[in-house]
Amino acid sequence: MTRMLRRSFLATTMALPALLPAGARAQAFPSRPIRIVSPFSAGGTSDGVVRLLSPTLERVLGQPVVLDNRPGAGGTVGTAHIAGERPDGHSLVLANAGPMAIAQTLFPNLAYDVRRSFSYVMLVGGAPMVVGVRPDNPIRSMADYLAAARARPEAMSYGSAGIGSVGHLAGMLWARETGVQLLHVPFRGGGEAEQQVLGGSLGSLWNTLGAHAGSVRGGTLRALALTSGERMSTFPEVPSIVEAGFPTATAINWFVLAGPAGMPEPVVARLREAFTVALNEPGMTERVAGQGVLRMQDQGPADVQAFVAREVERWAPIVRASGATPT
């Protein structure tokens, strides 16, 4: 009888953590390193943002922050990986509008649903697209760009980081709003598109600013506009797409921090607090802006989830009109 009682006691003791309320279990968070998946190749904008924020995050959370690049299928491979992880807050993804909004229409058999598969923490920031041409190109403004597209639509080409990328669809959005046609040429990354523009075999590019910030600053790429609603303080000489006369063609490649669905609210709140502290470090806004990323504000996790759902609906008709298919 004594042995039976001892076994019963041990079994009950081992089960106690699972019986504790979620709030009590979350008090020990984090208990090991925080892994943040970037669903793209190394060296991208999300990598740069994570590296900028990591020192403060590690100080606030008391654990190492590990960047894990898991590229593939437009960012959906790494994003799907996180959707299937344990919802304890130790595995997160910093994903952008590609896998979080565009992919819902682009991929018919997507392994996750952004409305149900994630616990959203916060909007970290957003990167506008840059419309760029060679410095010696006679096109010097978006008005010139529109005139050229109307005059020779078959010759007006633009490159992006790939089919279904935000740059591809931003160019499509502008073309639809202005009633012109542009020839899209996809590449495996923004760097390849830029090389073709500078080499003269491609007329222009539409791609995330962060990938071309150095070239714009150095004068080797002329920025006609940024697809934001207002100018960026770090690129004061480049007009926004709204200033250029196209107020309905804004396109921001936003970055959202999320984990698997079912993360306890105290864990989400702790992560949100740590990232807010990191983003509010003195000089951090300017350093993040140097990566081509604007700060974005939200009213909490529910607001972030609603924002993502709206973006899915916004991009859906553009994706369908583009004829883009998964590659």
UniProtKB/TrEMBL annotation:
| PROSITE patterns named among the record's database cross-references | TAT
Q: Which InterPro entries match?
A: BUG, Bug_dom1, TAT_signal
Highest taxon in the source lineage: Bacteria
Pfam families documented for this protein = TctC
Instruction: Supply the alphabetized keyword list.
Output: Signal
Which CDD domains does the entry link to?
PBP2_Bug_TTT
Residues of the signal sequence? 1-26
Family indicated by similarity: Belongs to the UPF0065 (bug) family.
Q: What is this protein called?
A: Tripartite tricarboxylate transporter substrate binding protein
Which organism encodes this protein?
Roseomonas nitratireducens
